[in-house]
Each structure stands twice: as C-alpha cells, then as structure tokens.
Amino acid sequence: MIKIVAENYIKEEHQKEFLKLTKELIILSREEAGNISYHLYQDIQDPSHYTFVEEWQNQEAIDLHNQTKHFTTIVPQIKSFTSKPSRAVKYKEVQ
Amino acid sequence: MIKIVAENYIKEEHQKEFLKLTKELIILSREEAGNISYHLYQDIQDPSHYTFVEEWQNQEAIDLHNQTKHFTTIVPQIKSFTSKPSRAVKYKEVQ
Predict the structure, then answer these.
(1) How far apart are CA A71 and CA A79, in angstroms?
(2) How far apart are CA B42 and CA B18, in angstroms?
(3) In chain A, which residue's Cα lies nearest the Cα of B45?
(4) DSSP state of B14
(5) Chain A partners of B90 at a C-beta cutoff of 8 Å?
(6) Over the stretch A9-52, which tens digit does the pLDDT of each residue have?
(7) Topology given in CATH for the domain delimited by A2-47+57-84
(8) Mean pLDDT for chain B?
(9) Cα-atom radius of gyration of chain A, to the nearest Å?
(10) In what residue span(s) does the ABM domain sit (chains A, B) (predicted)?
(11) Which residue in A8, A66, B12, B45 is a FRET match for A87, CA 20 to 30 A apart?
(12) Any chain B CB within 8 A of the CB of A1?
C-alpha cells in the first residue's frame, strides 16, 4: 500500500469551483481498481489549505491513475486555482 | 472527526530509538477512547521524513491525548531527535 498526502492552497475566488471538480475527481478515483481510499480534508486553521489523503495498492495503480481522463483533465484545473506551490508526498506504512 | 497530519524529520542516528518510542506511543494512543486511528508512515523519497496520520473523535479527545503520560513523555523525546522543524496540521473532512 502507498499513501499519498497531496496539499493544495486554493484562492478564495476558486473554492466553489475547486470543490465541484474535486467531487468528480474523488468519485471517479474511488472507482479505480487500484484505489483503496481517496478523501479530501480542509485545514481547520487555514481554510484555503486542502489536502487529499489517498491510498493505492501499489505504484502501478498510481501510474494508471495519473493517466486517467479525470486526472489529466481535473488536476491541471486545480493547479490553476492555487495561490502557492502544491506539495505531494508518497509514503509507505511503518506501523 | 478531526484528522491530524504530523510530520517529523528524524536524524539517522536516532531512527532506531524513534521507531521504538513511536511503537509504544501508537499502541497506547490507539487504546484511548477518543482515538479512531493512529498510524505512522515513512516518506518513500526521504527516509528521514516520518508522518503520523491520526483520527480523533473531536477536539476534546485531542486535548485529553495531549495530557496523557505517553504523549507528555514520548513526544518531547521525539522532538529531540529531529533534524528540522516538525509540522502538524489539523483537518476536517470535506469529502
């Protein structure tokens, strides 16, 4: 299992559109065979700070996800809404 | 539910001790009534980068956790092992 924690800072004027697009992204990503879970969280202290926490079966599942239509069309739109650099970290479970 | 993502960068010479202490911290934290889940992950690209992903029922559960003996004794030791500033973010679930 690989866990991804992907952080984005969304400009206030784009938050509504961001939430609409992420809803679609999340529904379609959860339907992928290699996905274990896919959730979106909002920072309690900084409402512009949104973080995806995703679990994938393996790197192959992530590679396939990155090639899907929903990823290649929605993620660039999300990036265009950001106010500062995004950050994504891939993790393996320790305990 | 509140999700905490807490990142620590651990000096190489302290990794063994860090993993021993976190094992204890995780076991005892999972036993707390207000805890939903408590896991530790390691960055695949940077093995010194460890991140706790925790789920708590509410802020009261986090306040109680922060007062437990395992938290007040183990967390300062973990902080003494770090090579750069730690970071913790509290999130609410969006979708």
Answers:
(1) 12
(2) 12
(3) A90
(4) G
(5) 43-45
(6) 999 999 999 999 999 999 999 999 999 999 999 999 999 999 99
(7) Alpha-Beta Plaits (3.30.70)
(8) 97
(9) 13
(10) 2-90
(11) B12
(12) no
